[in-house]
Amino acid sequence: MKASNNLIMVNRKKRFDIWDVLINIFVVMTSLACLLPLVHTLAKSLSKDAYVLANKVMLWPLGFNFDAYGKVLGDASILRSLYVSVVVTIAFTILGMIITICAAYPLSRKQLKGRKFLSFIFLITLYFSGGIIPEYMLINQLGLLDTMWALILPQAFSAFNFLIMRSAIASSIPVSLEESARIDGAGHFRVLFNIVLPLSKPIIATLSLFYAVGRWNAYQDAMFYIKMNTDLRPLQLKLYYMVVEASESFQLEATMVQVTNPDVLKAACVIFATVPIVCIYPFIQKYFVSGQMLGAVKE
Fold first, then answer.
1. What is the average pLDDT score of the chain?
2. Residue 157: which of 214, 72, 81 has the closest Cα?
3. How many CB atoms lie within 10 A of CB 156?
4. How many CB atoms are located within 10 Å of the residue 189 CB?
């Protein structure tokens, strides 16, 4: 009997070890699938045009040079576009988080009447929208074209982030804690600032990252709303036009001087635009996992 129990324990241990190996392999493969494209892009941005055209560049640069980065940084308007992107991203993230918190906190409290109906109204916007043309007409009528506000106000609220924030507050902030504060004379704003926000740092950091990355990478709305005032073009849109111009020039290079290969320039633009977000991520990484878990808990 004792020998059979030992055999069962050994079999269980072997089975668990196999699953651990499979899980580790899956995690490694998934990580490589995310990392290798970035390494390949970095290698292309540091390689000579001839090697990139011959498709010889894989994970290590060939003919190491910084010509593409020199072209990106050599444009005097790049720093201006970088400044616009930083300002717009910070303002967009702050405004988005203020609106999200102010909407999520009251709708997470069960004593609010009609909260399910109001939440349903927000939920509808995830599936239906007015479309690009009505939105452009609205921005035009409000006089926001060719202004920074055209890049901040239209997308400042995300219903998806609101639902995550509401679920996180409802699951992580006990009602008894709020009731105790009310007994001591605390009002709604005191409860929000002194109890809810300090206990919601993980989810706030996570959603702030979502807002910031979403705004930093966006350029389509800038193509629509920033036409005349080229000084307000964000970094992503500026890099997009640089790649387009390089592609057109490269096609006519037989009658022109040699220009940078658009693939190399595109890779340099990707790395240049990715570095700021990569530098910010380590500072909020400790909140990211716990914030994701809090937002995943359903009310």
1. 79
2. 214
3. 20
4. 8
Question: Cβ(245)–Cβ(93) under 8 Å?
Answer: no
Q: Whole-angstrom Cα distance, residue 155 to residue 153?
A: 6
Superfamily name and number for 67-296 = MetI-like (1.10.3720.10)
List helix spans (H) across 54-76. 67-74
So where are the chain's domains?
2-53, 67-296
Identify the DSSP state of 173.
Answer: S
Query: Greatest CA separation found in the chain?
Result: 88
What's the token pair of residue 75? 């444009």
Which of 86-100, 138-152, 268-282, 285-299 is predicted with the least confidence, judged by mean pLDDT?
285-299
Q: Residues 266, 267, 272, 277: what is their CA dihedral angle, to the nearest 10 degrees?
A: 110
Residue bearing the bigger pLDDT, 32 or 54: 32
- Distances in Å between the Cα of 39 and the Cα atoms of 54, 211, 267, 268, 274 are 18, 25, 10, 12, 12
**Residue located via tokens 């300090």:** 198
